[in-house]
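Box 3.1 A note on notation
Throughout this textbook, protein chains are presented in two layers. The first layer is the amino acid sequence; the second is a C-alpha cell string describing backbone geometry. Keep the layers aligned when reading.
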Amino acid sequence: MNRSIYILILSFFFIQCGEIDKDKKIPFNDVDGKYIHIESENIYLFVPKKVKLFSLTEYKDFINTIEDDRIKQMERARYLNMKYGPEKSYVMRSEDLNIDVTFSTIPYIKIDQTMSQEILRLLNQQHKRMGRVLGLESSFSRAGIIKKGRDRIFRAIFLYKGTDLLTGEDAQIYSYYYVANQKGKTFVLGFNSKDAYDFDSYVQKIRL
C-alpha cells in the first residue's frame, strides 16, 4: 500500500466512498476566527475562535475523563499515533467540545482524480467500521477537488446522526476532511462539529 495513503487512513476517523466532482473553484467568505501557529511546520491554521491547540499532556488528561470505553480506546489510538506515529499530527478542540480539529503532515502526493478515488476506496472500510463503533448513521454529502491557484485541495463532506455515546443525547456531527497541496507541502485536515461552519473558507485562509 502506498505509504502516504496508509498515513491518511490513520489520520481520518470517518470517511465514505462517493462521487468526486471535477476541479472547481468555490466561494471564499470572510469567516470569523483566529490563527493557530504550528511552529514545527511553520504553518498558520485558521480556526473558529473558541478552538485551542492541545498539548500531548492536555490531550492525555482529556482522554482520562472519557467514561465510554469504546470512545476512550479510539482516542487513545489517536493519542499514540500523535506521540509515536511516523508523521507529526495535532489535535485542537473547543472548550465546549463542540468542535474537533485534527491536523497532520504527510509526504507529498499529487492530488488528482485518480488519487482521490483511491483515497476514498481505501478509506471506505475504515469509515464503516468506525460508524459501527460510534453507533452513528452516516450520510455522504459530496467530495471534490478544489482549485486554489496552482494548489489543489481534496475535500469530502459528511453528516452523522445518532446518539452521542458520551451524553446519551440525540446528536448530529458535520464532518469535513481535506487533503491539501500548498507550496509543495501536503497536509491532512479534519473538522468535526456539532454546528454547521463554512470550513472551506477556513482552509483557504491557511498561511504557510
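Helices lie at 3-11, 56-64, 69-84, 113-134, 199-204. DSSP finds five helices and ten strands in the chain.
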